[in-house]
Amino acid sequence: MLQPRLLLRRPPKSCNWIISTLSFRQTRTNSSLEPAQPDAVQNSVLQNTALAFAPPPTRDEGSTFAMRTYKPRTPGVRHLRRPINDHLWKGRPFLPLTFAKKGQGKGGRNHTGRVTVRHRGGGHKRRIRTVDFSRMTPGKHTVDRIEYDPGRSGHIALITEEATGRKSYILAAESMRAGDTVQSYRAGIPQDLLDSMGGVVDPGILAAKTAWRGNCLPLHMIPIGTLVHNVGSSKDRGGVFCRSAGTYATVISKGDEGISKGNEGPTAKEAKFVTVRLQSGEIRKVSKDACATVGVVSNPHHQHRQLGKAGRKRWLGIRPTVRGVAMNAVDHPHGGGRGKSKGNVHPVSPWGVPTKSGYKTRNKRNPNKWVVVERTRNQGKRKRAQKG
């Protein structure tokens, strides 16, 4: 039986283990986040009424983390590296919320049976987990367990509604564990929370009591600077952005549209959009009523894993990728010839489409695109015809 070993950050000199610590900008949400004191919150609101904020999840810049490695008893585990996720559920999923992945689409084929996506097929049997990306049900939900999902890179959490006992799957935020309580505020502010604020919505107190890890809120209720995931695009849709492992978006501004001139306080007209920054650097404006979950998606070290052998790729349903220069001339434009030869041609796909950057692929009246190459009778040389 393979014996797992933990990679230590600073092992003793006499240790002969394989040490592989990776530097990564680790996402860490503050697990002991406590609501701010009402007096301090009210003072901050008085100083800046337009900006109400709660302590958002933070990120450490120079942190290191450990990966699990194994003794090289076989060649397949010599380079195997895995993130340490000992908190995951080790049993079967909640079967009423799953269905078998069968039929079309497993081998990268369309309804006619032709391969439309290459390098897919085979793999282990899977069951699709039905994940609730909308989270429209209000009330408190208790996290039963954190599970592995073969259909995504992040982990999922099985939650139970306290009022009805109904179970559902949601995306698990980083540092979320069994026993935590999460809530959705998409249906509005609960009456008990409104009564605790004296019947009047105080932005600072509201943010301090609702902007917690795992809670789903409309974007206009989330403080500026908070890291969020599972961000929606419109009011009636579920989350569509930042759903893979370790991803997040940042709320950078609110109320920059629709504010009447001369009014800068809370009495100004509410904005229709909230501006968020995605991890790609893209700045997007989404509806203020769109959903977002506070925190970062779980399993942030997914990108640093090493599968160790080709067979583990096949278990995941990924087929081999063969280089064009290794094929025969009948199979690829780069194939054939003696030795490693490209045949003195520019890089192209198996269907002859150029793959170098700068190639224009527009088809609608693009004056810069050159098409069919014809040979003229008079000049005896190639002439390019422009598509008008």
UniProtKB/TrEMBL annotation:
<dbReference type="InterPro" id="IPR022671">
    <property type="entry name" value="Ribosomal_uL2_CS"/>
</dbReference>
<feature type="domain" description="Large ribosomal subunit protein uL2 RNA-binding">
    <location>
        <begin position="108"/>
        <end position="184"/>
    </location>
</feature>
<dbReference type="GO" id="GO:0003735">
    <property type="term" value="F:structural constituent of ribosome"/>
</dbReference>
<comment type="function">
    <text>Component of the mitochondrial ribosome (mitoribosome), a dedicated translation machinery responsible for the synthesis of mitochondrial genome-encoded proteins, including at least some of the essential transmembrane subunits of the mitochondrial respiratory chain. The mitoribosomes are attached to the mitochondrial inner membrane and translation products are cotranslationally integrated into the membrane.</text>
</comment>
<dbReference type="GO" id="GO:0003723">
    <property type="term" value="F:RNA binding"/>
</dbReference>
<dbReference type="InterPro" id="IPR008991">
    <property type="entry name" value="Translation_prot_SH3-like_sf"/>
</dbReference>
<comment type="similarity">
    <text>Belongs to the universal ribosomal protein uL2 family.</text>
</comment>
<feature type="region of interest" description="Disordered">
    <location>
        <begin position="100"/>
        <end position="124"/>
    </location>
</feature>
<dbReference type="InterPro" id="IPR014726">
    <property type="entry name" value="Ribosomal_uL2_dom3"/>
</dbReference>
<dbReference type="InterPro" id="IPR022669">
    <property type="entry name" value="Ribosomal_uL2_C"/>
</dbReference>
<keyword id="KW-0496">Mitochondrion</keyword>
<feature type="domain" description="Large ribosomal subunit protein uL2 C-terminal">
    <location>
        <begin position="211"/>
        <end position="354"/>
    </location>
</feature>
<feature type="region of interest" description="Disordered">
    <location>
        <begin position="329"/>
        <end position="388"/>
    </location>
</feature>
<dbReference type="GO" id="GO:0032543">
    <property type="term" value="P:mitochondrial translation"/>
</dbReference>
<dbReference type="Pfam" id="PF00181">
    <property type="entry name" value="Ribosomal_L2_N"/>
</dbReference>
<dbReference type="InterPro" id="IPR014722">
    <property type="entry name" value="Rib_uL2_dom2"/>
</dbReference>
<dbReference type="InterPro" id="IPR022666">
    <property type="entry name" value="Ribosomal_uL2_RNA-bd_dom"/>
</dbReference>
<feature type="compositionally biased region" description="Basic residues">
    <location>
        <begin position="108"/>
        <end position="124"/>
    </location>
</feature>
<protein>
    <recommendedName>
        <fullName>Large ribosomal subunit protein uL2m</fullName>
    </recommendedName>
</protein>
<feature type="compositionally biased region" description="Basic residues">
    <location>
        <begin position="378"/>
        <end position="388"/>
    </location>
</feature>
<dbReference type="Pfam" id="PF03947">
    <property type="entry name" value="Ribosomal_L2_C"/>
</dbReference>
<dbReference type="GO" id="GO:0016740">
    <property type="term" value="F:transferase activity"/>
</dbReference>
<dbReference type="InterPro" id="IPR005880">
    <property type="entry name" value="Ribosomal_uL2_bac/org-type"/>
</dbReference>
<keyword id="KW-0689">Ribosomal protein</keyword>
<dbReference type="GO" id="GO:0005762">
    <property type="term" value="C:mitochondrial large ribosomal subunit"/>
</dbReference>
<keyword id="KW-0687">Ribonucleoprotein</keyword>
<dbReference type="InterPro" id="IPR002171">
    <property type="entry name" value="Ribosomal_uL2"/>
</dbReference>
<dbReference type="InterPro" id="IPR012340">
    <property type="entry name" value="NA-bd_OB-fold"/>
</dbReference>
